[in-house]
Design brief:
Chain A: This is UGSC-like domain-containing protein. The structure holds 2 protein chains of 2 kinds. Chain A is an alpha/beta fold. Chain A has one domain: Rossmann fold. Chain A has 6 helices and 7 strands, in the order ββαβαβαβαβαβα. Chain A has helices spanning 40-55, 70-85, 98-113, 127-136, 156-174, 179-185, and strands at residues 24-25, 30-36, 59-65, 89-95, 118-123, 143-147, 176-177. In chain A, helix 1 packs across helix 5 and helix 5 crosses helix 6 (179-185). The radius of gyration of chain A is 17 Å and the shape is globular. Chain B is built from 12 helices and 12 strands. In chain B, helix 1 crosses helix 2, helix 9 (200-211) crosses helix 10 (234-243) and helix 9 crosses helix 11 (247-257). Helix content of chain B is 34%, strand content 18%. Chain B is globular, with a radius of gyration of 20 Å. Chain B has 2 domains: 16-187 and 317-322, no CATH class; 190-311, no CATH class. The chains are: A alpha/beta, B alpha+beta. At the A-B interface, helix 2, helix 3 and helix 4 of A face strand 2, helix 2, helix 4 and helix 6 of B.
C-alpha cells in the first residue's frame, strides 16, 4: 500500500550562478575589507593583501565585524551598509568556523547584492559550508577564495608567507586586471 | 527517511489527513507565514510546522507554542543563522511560562530537563525537524557542530515552576506576562551539586563559581558579549529568597561571584581580554557584561541538592514571545 505524504521541506531560493562583476583594474578603486574579532590570522593576511592592493592604486578600508545581535548588531548592520555604499568592491572574511562562515557569507551576499565585485574568503575546512550557504542564500556563483586549514594556530611568519603566496591567486579569483594579477597569469 | 527528512528515529507519515487534523486542532491557517529561517532562508509556514510536528509525534494543541518558539528563534537578536551553522554544540532551549505549561503538560518539576514521559520530547523534536527540513540545518552540509548535543534530537523543552518560585516568572520579568515562550541558545546542560551550603550566600556562591570556568562562552574573546542561564531548584530558591527577595539582587550576587581573576589565564589570553575591556575591579573578569545577563529561573525537583547551568552560545540573545 502506498501512503501519500506532504513534503516537510522548504525549497531553495532563486539562484544566481553568476559570480558577479570582476574587480577589474584596481587603480582608484575603493575596496572594503571585512575582518572580524575572531581570527588574528585573517588580520595578518588581509593586512598583507591590503599593502598589495594599495600598491596597485586602490584605496582600502577595513571594517571589523563584532557583536551582531541586539543594539550592537543593529549598529553594525548600519555601519556595514554605509561602508558598502562608499565602496567599489568588497573582500569579506573569514570563514574559519561555522557561525563566522555564516556571517562571512551573509555579509558577502549583501555586498554582492549591490552589484559590486565581491569575494568571500574561507579556510579549506569550511569551503563546503561556504558554498552551501552561498547557494542557500541564492547566489551559488559567489566568488570564494580558499586559504589553507588550519590557519589560525600557525605563527605569524608562516601566516604571512601564506598571505604572500596566495596573493596572486586571490587577485585572479577576484577578477583583477593588470599589475601583478596579469603578470602572474602570463 | 530515504528523502533525508528525518533524524534517524521512526517518523509518523505526515499524511494530508493527519496534517489537516493537526491544523484544525492548532487553529491556524496553513499558509500563514511564521518566519524566514536560515541558513536556507526558507519561509516557514504554519503548514510546514504542522507537517514536521506530525512527523515528530506532536499533537495539535502544541501549535501555538511551536509558532511562538519559531517566531522567537527568528528574531535577529537570536542569531539563528550563526547558531545553525556553528562549530559549537548549541541547541535552542524552549522555556515555557504561564498556564499553558500545565495545559500542555510541559515538565518543570523533577526531571524537567529530560526523561519525563510526556509531550515535551515530541514538541522539541518537532522544532528540531523544522530546523532540519525547513531551515536546512544539516550536519556537514550547513552545520559544522564539532560534537552536536543530545538536545538536537528532541530539543530541550521545559517550564518554570512558577508556583514554587519566590520571584516573578521569568517571562514576566522579561516583559511578557502569562503564556510565553523564552528561547535561549544553550550549550547543553550541566549540573551543579552541593551538600554543604545552608544559606542564600552559600547556594549562590557555589552556583556562581561553578558557572565561571575558563572555556565558558562568556569568557571567549571571540564574543563581544553573552548571557548565561541557571535553573535553581525550589528548595534552594526558597532559602535564597529569604535573603534576596528581589531577583535583581540575586542576579547581582551571581554576576559578582561569577568571575575569574585575570591571572588565572595564561599570558597570551590576557591582552585580548584586556582589549575587550573585560578586566574589572581587582583584576577580575566577569562571565557576562552585566547582572542583567545572568538569567535565573526556578525549576527542578524537590530533592534539592542540584542546580542546572545552561551556558550560552556566541552573542545569541535570549528572546521571549507571548504564546497566542
Amino acid at each position: 500500500m502506498t501512503i501519500q505524504v506532504l513534503d516537510p521541506t522548504a525549497s531553495l531560493a532563486h539562484d544566481v550562478a553568476d559570480p558577479g562583476p570582476d574587480a577589474g583594474v584596481l587603480k582608484d578603486k575603493r575596496i572594503a575589507i571585512r575582518i572580524d574579532m575572531l581570527w588574528r590570522s585573517w588580520d595578518w593576511v588581509s593586512a598583507i593583501w591590503a599593502e598589495g592592493l594599495r600598491a596597485e592604486g586602490a584605496e582600502v578600508t577595513f571594517w571589523r565585524s563584532c557583536g551582531r545581535t541586539g543594539a550592537e548588531g543593529e549598529a553594525a548592520a548600519r555601519d556595514y551598509a554605509a561602508l558598502l555604499r562608499e565602496s567599489d568592491a568588497a573582500i569579506v572574511g573569514l570563514g574559519n568556523c561555522g557561525s563566522c562562515t555564516s556571517w562571512t557569507i551573509a555579509d558577502a551576499l549583501e555586498a554582492a547584492a549591490t552589484g559590486m565585485p565581491t569575494i568571500a574568503v574561507a579556510t579549506a575546512h569550511f569551503e563546503g559550508l561556504a558554498h552551501n550557504l552561498a547557494k542557500r542564500g541564492g547566489r551559488s556563483g559567489l566568488r570564494l577564495h580558499v586559504l589553507p586549514y588550519p590557519l589560525d594556530i600557525l605563527p605569524r611568519d608562516q601566516v604571512d608567507d601564506i598571505a604572500r603566496d596566495q596573493y596572486r591567486s586571490f587577485l585572479r579569483n577576484f577578477g583583477v586586471r593588470g599589475g601583478l594579477a596579469e603578470q602572474s597569469a602570463a | 527517511m530515504a528523502q533525508g527528512w528525518g533524524d534517524g528515529l521512526p517518523l509518523i507519515p505526515p499524511t494530508e489527513a493527519r496534517v489537516q487534523d493537526f491544523l484544525v486542532a492548532g487553529g491556524r491557517f496553513p499558509d500563514e507565514l511564521i518566519a524566514v529561517l536560515p541558513p536556507l532562508r526558507a519561509e516557514c509556514t504554519v503548514e510546514k510546522i504542522a507537517v514536521n510536528a506530525v512527523m515528530a509525534g506532536c499533537t495539535g494543541d502544541a501549535m501555538p507554542l511551536l509558532c511562538a518558539a519559531i517566531e522567537a528563534m527568528a528574531d535577529p537578536s537570536f542569531d539563528l543563522a550563526g547558531l545553525n551553522a556553528t562549530t559549537g554544540s548549541v541547541v535552542p532551549a524552549i522555556i515555557v511560562n504561564g498556564p499553558i505549561r500545565n495545559a500542555l503538560d510541559i515538565p518543570y518539576q523533577a526531571g524537567c530537563l529530560g526523561g519525563v514521559a510526556g509531550p515535551a520530547p515530541a514538541i522539541g523534536r518537532a522544532i528540531r525537524l523544522i530546523m532540519r527540513n525547513v531551515a536546512g540545518q544539516l550536519i556537514n552540509a550547513t552545520s559544522q557542530s564539532v560534537y552536536g548535543t543530545p538536545g538536537r534530537v528532541a530539543g530541550i523543552v521545559f517550564g518554570e515552576w512558577e508556583e514554587r518560585s519566590p520571584w516573578a516568572p521569568l517571562a514576566e520579568r522579561r516583559g511578557v506576562a502569562g503564556d510565553a515562550v523564552t528561547v535561549y541558545g544553550a550549550m547543553g546542560t550541566a549540573n551543579i551539586c552541593d551538600v554543604v551550603a545552608d544559606s542564600a550566600d552559600g547556594f549562590l556562591d557555589i552556583i556562581a563559581k561553578s558557572m565561571a570556568y575558563p572555556g565558558a562562552n562568556g569568557f571567549l574573546t571571540s564574543s563581544a558579549f553573552s548571557e548565561t542561564l541557571c535553573a535553581i531548584n525550589p528548595v534552594w530558591a526558597e532559602v535564597i529568597a529569604r535573603s534576596y527577595p528581589d531577583m535583581a539582587d540575586v542576579q547581582a550576587y551571581l554576576w559578582d561571584k561569577c568571575a575569574l581573576p585575570i591571572d588565572w589565564w595564561r599570558p597570551e589570553y590576557r591582552a585580548p581580554i584586556e582589549a575587550l575591556g573585560r578586566i574589572g575591579a581587582e583584576g577580575r573578569v566577569h562571565l557576562t557584561p552585566t547582572p542583567d545577563d545572568v538569567i535565573v529561573m526556578v525549576a527542578g525537583g524537590l530533592g534539592g541538592l542540584h542546580a542546572a547551568m545552561l551556558h550560552s552560545w556566541g552573542t545569541c540573545l535570549t528572546v521571549t514571545r507571548p504564546i497566542r
